[in-house]
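Ticket #588: bound-state structure for adenosine-3',5'-cyclic-monophosphate.
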Amino acid sequence: MPHDVSLIATIAIGFVLAFVLGFAANKLRLPPLVGYLLAGVIMGQYLPNFMATNAVTGQLAEIGVMLLMFGVGLHFSIPDLMAVRWVAIPGAVCQILVATAIGAAMAMYLWGWTLGAGIVLGLSLSVASTVVLLKALDERNGVSTPNGRIAIGWLIVEDLAMVVVLVLLPAFAGMLGGHVPASDHGADVGLMASLGNTAIKVAAFVLILLFFGPKVMPWLLRQVARTGSRELFTLSVLAVSLGIAYGSAELFGVSFALGAFFAGVVLSESDFSHKAAANSLPLQDAFAVLFFVSVGMLFDPSILTRQPGMVACVVALILVGKSLAALAIVGVMGYPLSTALTVSAALAQIGEFSFILAGLGVTYGLMPAEGVNLVLAGALISITVNPLVFAAVDGANWVVGERPRWKALFEDSRAERFDRLRSDLELARITLEKKLHAHRTFSPEELVGRFPLFAGLTPEQREVLILHFQPRTAQPGDRIIRSGDKADAAFFLSSGEVEVAVRGRTVNKLGAGSFFGEMALLSGERRSADVTALDFCKFLALSQRDFRRFVRKYPSVYEQVVALAKERGDMNRQFLDDLAHGTAPPLT
Ligand code: CMP
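RESOLUTION: The complex was predicted; output attached.
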């Protein structure tokens, strides 16, 4: 090769292999993730030249995690989390403690590891992957079901807990028998000082972002969206997500993943969250694939033959230990068996945070390097069998449903709490929808349906146009435009009826789908007529500046507007002529 193209080769071969194996996995009714991981394993094993680029691949994978966490943040709904908090927060915390304790005990008593190593391994195995869960739920159309939302809430709490763990690990490393690299001055200033320092930094970051974010970011995106350039919009979403992730890591020492997650949370509150999600999705998908490929590349399959016992213990903990713990916790909380089973299946896998944590554990000398291999083996196996676990849960639910006595015992008698939670979730959904509704005036399709004037615009152009509109209302009798006033906006009537009057006489009535206020904007003169609401009206206002910009951009619409304005002008002149000659209709 003429110059070093190993990164290009890695990405190209990674994508090709991931695609072929992902497709094959799909045909075998396995999640495509399994194919991606396998592609990585093959690359790592049989194409050793690519191992040289592992560091770079690791960074690409990290971009994948950042984008994925940004996506999780974008879809993160605070009302949803509030609705499930009583099950998700205690549940996730208890489950992490139980799984970590089992993992640590297993490592210490069975393998003779140190306490620090045991804790890091236990923590790595205790946290499930939100990414894997979202993909699993998506395939089963379960993302918005109550059980699905409980599981997502639970995993988000786990993610947040892991972020805290990642932040605290350097501070505790020395105490647990590890060492902290010189560049990471965490432990040498004393545990309390280091903890306090970290807490202040994280709190400062979250406060700054949550305080300024909701004001600045939607404003910024609105400005970008108004340019009508999809490319610039996608770029702004990327700049915000990766920029905040990187900047927060540099300035505040929080992890990339947390920074990206909060960037997503802040954007999720704005009316651009859908557009931002849609635009960043292809990139998220592509980098997520690289993430899984690179995980596969790091894996050393020889561990399966070298240490089958240890691998079996790890897999048993992930599949059985964690599931049983979650089943018991949800059961004790009084939820039906089906909920407990769904959460258990959701937790029966490990993913991105486990790799990050295990990697850090090795860096800090807390865990033997073999630990990373064990975690990777556990991840590969548990992610691969996860669909089977969900299928088993479906089977169990079916069996219970078929037996009236079991159903009464495990489901019906425990329905009360679940029903309350379901209605809370429903309330959260309604609140969210209301909010979205308040933000959004029209969908692009509705806009055309209501205003045929815009039929010639592309969906993108319609979307941009919608961003310019300000929704307004008027009561019957309200004067929307006063003759002789200076022009400031044009109005598009979406419902109701208005009356147009010249010199106190009605010349016309306009209904939904028509517009008014364009004549003065076009001519630069004063308003030519009074416009008064006849009943409750809803309309969209387009400011003078946006109107000018808009007509310049869309000549087809401009021509229609000019033609109608001319028609109206002619009509009014005729009317005034008639008035002067005494042939106008009587005063209204
Ligand atoms: P403008 O002159 O800016 O403000 C008053 C608006 O009333 C005017 O723009 C038109 O949009 C509208 N208008 C004036 N005359 C008529 C008419 N004859 N029929 C319908 N609308 C009219």
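RESOLUTION NOTES: The longest strand covers residues 489-495.
TICKET STATUS: resolved
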